[in-house]
Design goal:
The structure is a homodimer. By secondary structure, chain A is of the alpha+beta class. Chain A has two domains: 167 residues, Ribosomal Protein S5, domain 2 (2-Layer Sandwich); 130 residues, Alpha-Beta Plaits (2-Layer Sandwich). Helix content of chain A is 38%, strand content 28%. Chain A has ten helices and twelve strands. In chain A, strands 1, 2, 3, 4, 5, 6 and 12 form a seven-stranded mixed sheet that branches. In chain A, strands 9-10-7-11 form a four-stranded antiparallel sheet, sandwiched between helices. In chain A, β1 and β2 form a beta hairpin. In chain A, α6 packs antiparallel against α7 and α9 packs antiparallel against α10.
Chain lengths: 309, 309
């Protein structure tokens, strides 16, 4: 039986514009690493958090605590868990920071408990971390963080995660301006009701995006990357959003938008070279703005959460 | 140059529950046949309508007139068109009656005008028939009627029709109770605004349905056949809807719902045998009700509108 395990969970770009709350994609960088050791004292302990000083070690305020409590509650195990989290993904970045820690925690605990759960069940446990972090147990980041690739949350009741085809040349670029936007705040500015005509346009694009993924039709993917719901409200929260989009277009991106609830901005590209060019163009915008940022270029991450020891 | 042409356009099941206003599927039966003869008098003439007495021959009230006027306006041709329509699809049935006549008219006129238009352009012309018939120029019936198969209207501006993969064993059953529901009336009872949470559930299913078509995942197709928007409002207009659904389930259908704006009810099935069984079960419900009806079982129509002389 494993007594200690170290796992790695990737950052994720959720929504992909039209797929608000349902579509997400894993990327290779950045990522979180979680070490968990089984203990005999029956306690959950967050023994250390590296790479971020703002995250609480209180198990009632840390997503790993929420996930482990859910797992203990579901299994009735009497063991304890000692957790060390290495944050590669900054909280509030909009690229699934809480999701990665939640996914890694669920995945690691499952190994320590002899792999009794399916990946779908691990998604459900990881969602408890999301509930703590954002107030709603969404799965559009934890699903791709765990499965890898591109996922669709078709339904929450019952939870039904669909793995979408990954076009072979699909790359992403992510720019993370160092301005924190709380998911809970970004949700509040959305309208609770939307015109039916707007909803129809949005789900036309959801259908187009999914069709584009399955047929590896990069132009169709690009045409479908439209968001009539969140972006019109949220883009104003993101400094330089219009210029970042313009830069992504100039670099040859298929499309671009807000990653999750922001402030990160993503672009999808066909091929590594284009992604490199788009990263350069978008980085120039950020450099001119004087706002600190991180930039990443990555193919779609296929592996999801993996053990690394 | 052709002076006379006869074409056949299939009935279509639009919406497929979650894909309200964007998804449609062509079926083999019933169908409309349109004969058009080029004339030199510069006039549009609806010379005859067979199989239905309620359709006007006035070119300002007949969808063929609307389509031909649009084509004349776009091309500036000075010729006339003499049209005979053979209605296999009853008006107000909810299986694309006006769409089939519109599609056939556009397709036939294009042959007579030396095939100058693309299929996408023919969809746009046929939409003028829909505008006349229902007050809105929707494409979710005319697109599959022209292209065949299963189509997605990703966008109207610009018009972007996406052909979805057709799972090889996909069959449909359609029951048409002889009660007419006007599309324009069925639209009025829908809410103009819907909760964002409802919209998200709907587009989760749109994504699932499209993914199910591309991966020929019949269970996923069935799970995705859910409509949170139109069915809750419209199903009350359809006599015996709940019993028809129950019968479809008992027969082994993947799912069922309202075809277009009704009153036809459709079911999707895996394989001909199941479709046959579902047709029997649903027909039993109708027979018990005493309401006159027509019933059809058909694989997905692949050909769309075709010439038949």
């Amino acid at each position: 039986m494993n007594r200690r395990v170290r796992v790695k969970a990737p950052a994720t770009v959720s929504n992909l514009n039209c797929g608000f709350d349902v579509i997400g994609m894993a990327i290779n960088e950045p990522y979180d690493i979680v070490d968990i050791e089984l203990t005999d004292n029956g306690l959950i302990e967050i023994a250390g958090i590296r790479g971020c000083q703002s995250i609480s070690r209180d198990i009632d305020k840390n997503v790993a605590g929420a996930v482990l409590k859910a797992i203990i509650s579901a299994t009735g195990v009497k063991c304890g868990f000692r957790v060390i989290i290495e944050k590669g993904i900054l909280p509030g970045s909009g690229i699934g920071s809480s999701a990665a820690s939640s996914a890694a925690t669920a995945f690691a605990a499952n190994i320590l408990l002899d792999n009794r759960f399916t990946l779908a069940e691990l998604v459900a446990f990881a969602m408890e971390g999301e509930r703590l972090a954002s107030g709603s147990a969404h799965a559009d980041n934890v699903a791709p963080a765990i499965y890898g690739g591109i996922t669709l949350v078709r339904s929450y009741e019952p939870l039904d995660i669909i793995r979408l085809n990954i076009p072979p040349d699909l790359w992403s670029v992510v720019i993370h301006p160092r301005a924190e936007i709380k998911t809970s705040e970004a949700r509040k500015i959305l309208d609770k009701e939307i015109p039916l005509s707007t909803a129809v346009r949005q789900w036309g694009n959801v259908g187009g995006l999914v069709a584009g993924f399955f047929s590896s039709d990069y132009d169709l993917i690009g045409r479908s990357l439209v968001d009539y719901v969140a972006e019109p409200k949220r883009s104003a929260l993101i400094p330089g959003f219009d210029m970042l989009r313009k830069a992504a277009n100039e670099g040859g991106a298929l499309g671009s938008g807000i990653s999750g609830s922001g402030p990160s901005v993503f672009a999808l590209c066909r091929g590594e070279d284009t992604a490199g060019e788009v990263l350069v163009k978008m980085s120039e915008v950020m450099n001119s703005s004087g706002i600190r940022f991180s930039g990443y270029s990555s193919p779609v991450n296929h592996e999801g959460t993996v053990r690394c020891n």
